[in-house]
Amino acid sequence: MRALVTGGAGFIGSNIALALLERGHSVVILDDLSSGCAANLPAGARARFIHADVRDSRCVREAMEGVSWVFHLAASVGNKRSIDHPVRDVEINVLGTLQVLEAARAAGVRKIVVSSSAAIFGELKTLPIREDHPVEPDSPYGASKLCAEKEALAFGKLYGIETVCLRYFNVYGPRQRFDAYGNVIPIFVFQALREEPLTIFGDGEQTRDFVHVGDVVQANLKAADAPGVCGAFNIGSGTRISINGLVDRLRTTMDGLPPVRYAPPRRGDVRDSLADITAAHTAFGFQPRIGLTAGLADYVAWARREDVVLAHQGDHARGFGHARPQMFQRSLRSDSELSHS
Ligand SMILES: NC(=O)c1ccc[n+]([C@@H]2O[C@H](COP(=O)([O-])OP(=O)(O)OC[C@H]3O[C@@H](n4cnc5c(N)ncnc54)[C@H](O)[C@@H]3O)[C@@H](O)[C@H]2O)c1
Question: Does domain 184-206+239-337 correspond to CATH entry 3.40.109.10?
Fold first, then answer.
């Protein structure tokens, strides 16, 4: 089988591409390397890379040749980035998705798996969040991902393409880099490695459903491989933890942490999040297997690798921050030692 992975140089997309290659498939990756990186690109005869923008219809059509499965991940990712650049967010997330859908229709693709986001829901009204929870996004990012999802499902119905949208909750794991728009786990881990204070926005009692990228890969492959399965599905761990609780877990995993500071809540951040994953389990057998303790250990081990530390030093040179090669080791601190400024 030949698969196209848009955004395949990024965190989740590169993990999907790797898993496809490991299973013997051929993979075409289309990515503009705006937030992904060349080091994530796989080598080998069954992997092809097209360095292009997903809004470029000619390149997307070329990438689609002979493809049976499309995993569409290329996106401008994150609430904060979308608040800073709302027009770019829509151009990439909505118009870029339409280019992929148009090309997939023309090429007669069998299945499209679109990476959507729990950001489409906005503030939690019921717990856990089922697929039929009201969709009232709090950020341009949530709105653009919702629009992309609706376009994809409409295309699927109109043209008979099997289309699945996977609404990820907070994904973490190897290859997730630290940058100004990063998620909380990479931010905390790389701040800790640099011995910098950790900043919690709000009181830290807000909760998140963290799902390991290995489980997100599993969801993508199972959804693609499930004949006749279409629709939108939540993909999370089905568990939640407060940000204060996450910091406690990290303190254990990293054998200590720098002080923690508290700052005012950020615009566009929801208070709570927890996925109901029953529908994905019923439709295509999705079953998260990597718990937070094992997943954090896996991520921290990756973040401490020398090549990763050096890559982040390169990011620093480009203005994303810096990482020092030495590993952060410190004895456990008690909560009373934490800074609450
Ligand atoms: N990481 C999460 O927690 C999370 C949560 C919910 C949804 N998602 C979704 O999962 C997908 C992958 O996210 P990620 O966390 O791997 O982010 P990422 O930034 O690592 O990956 C996105 C990739 O898309 C590429 N890209 C961006 N704009 C492009 C363009 N115009 N043309 C071609 N390529 C472009 C980037 O270079 C990058 O490689 C996205 O669709 C995102 O919305 C992620």
Answer: no
The distance from CA 326 to its chain's CA centroid, rounded to whole angstroms, is: 27
pLDDT, tens digit, 9 for 90 and up, residues 238-292? 999 999 999 999 999 999 999 999 999 987 677 899 999 999 999 999 999 999 9
77 Cα nearest atom in ligand 1: 43
Report the alpha-carbon distance of residue 183 to residue 201 in Å, rounded. 12
User: Rounded to the nearest whole angstrom, what is the distance from the C-alpha of residue 73 to the centroid of ligand 1?
Assistant: 5
- Ligand 1 neighbour 73 (Cβ under 6 A): yes
CATH 3.40.50.720 location in the chain: 2-168+212-235
At the topology level of CATH, where does 2-168+212-235 sit? Rossmann fold (3.40.50)
Residue 142 CA to residue 123 CA, distance in Å, equals 11
**106 vs 96: CA distance, rounded Å:** 16
CATH 3.90.25.10 residue spans of the chain: 184-206+239-337
Task: Select from 285, 281, 288 the least CA-distant residue to 214.
Answer: 288
Between the CA of 301 and the centroid of ligand 1 the distance, in Å, is 23
pTM above 0.85, yes or no: yes
How far is residue 334's CA from residue 259's CA, in Å, rounded to a whole number?
A: 10
